[in-house]
Specification:
Elements lengths: L1 E2 L2 H9 L3 E2 L14 E4 L3 E5 L11 H8 E6 L4 E3 L4 E5 L3 E3 L4 E7 L1 H5 L2 E7 L7 E2 L4 E2 L1 E7 L4 E3 L4 E9 L6 H11 L37 E2 L1
């Protein structure tokens, strides 16, 4: 029960529950997640969008897309713009299995907003139980333009089998025993994590992006 480990993800691939036209590589399988590869085309879109419960992504593309970009040899995605790219991996989830996506840490460090979109869905980054179809990633470079190409991985997908979330009381006991998070200020539907703005030995507390710099090659 809970998040599936790498052994279970490998089994899902063997059983064609996760499948792709291009063979899924062993290096994509992480201890508890699967790295998702970008497809060979991208669309510049007018704005971020969700499909809602009654439509597929393809139903809305004609309304939102501005132009198509070939990703095979690489392309520059401009900061301040929104793009949609199909993911190489397709899903055929059973009725008891759902999935949650998150950006890889390197993506966050470069201030790139990436969110997974699935058909007939009203929320980002969540794939419902029993989903059958393609998934897409919305990419919005915020601070830097970026150069990317087909096959690069910006997102991970974790698979859940009837996950049960522990209560705040259970979490409080665990944190008291194992010190999971130091200096906890609040436990309310999970542990609240705050930002530390105190400098250590006059070091920086954050970084500001340069306004005019070359596109970062991912």
């Amino acid at each position: 029960m809970g998040v599936l480990p790498s052994q279970s993800i490998s089994k899902l691939i063997l059983e064609k529950i996760i499948f792709a036209d291009i063979e899924i590589e062993k290096g994509q399988i992480q201890p508890a997640s699967l790295d998702l590869r970008l497809g060979n085309i991208a669309w510049r879109v007018r704005a971020s969008f969700l499909t809602g419960k009654d439509k597929d992504v393809s139903d809305l593309l004609d309304e939102f897309k501005m132009h198509q970009i070939d990703m095979v040899e690489g392309a520059v995605l401009e900061k301040g713009c929104v793009y949609l790219i199909p993911i190489e991996e397709n899903l055929r989830l059973p009725a008891n299995l759902s999935a949650v996506a998150n950006a890889k840490s390197s993506t966050g460090r470069l201030d790139i907003l990436t969110r997974l979109i699935s058909d007939n869905s009203s929320c980002f980054d969540r794939v419902r139980k029993g989903y059958n179809g393609r998934v897409y990633v919305e990419i919005a470079p915020i601070s830097f333009s970026i150069t990317i190409k087909e096959g690069i991985t910006l997102n991970q997908l974790r698979f859940h089998n009837e996950q049960q979330i522990i209560t705040d009381r259970q979490l409080e006991k665990l944190n008291t025993r194992f010190n999971i998070v130091e200096n906890v200020t609040q436990i309310d539907n999970g542990i609240t994590i705050s930002v530390n703005l105190k400098s250590n030995e006059n070091g920086p507390i954050g970084f500001k992006a340069k306004k005019n710099c070359p596109a970062i090659n991912l």
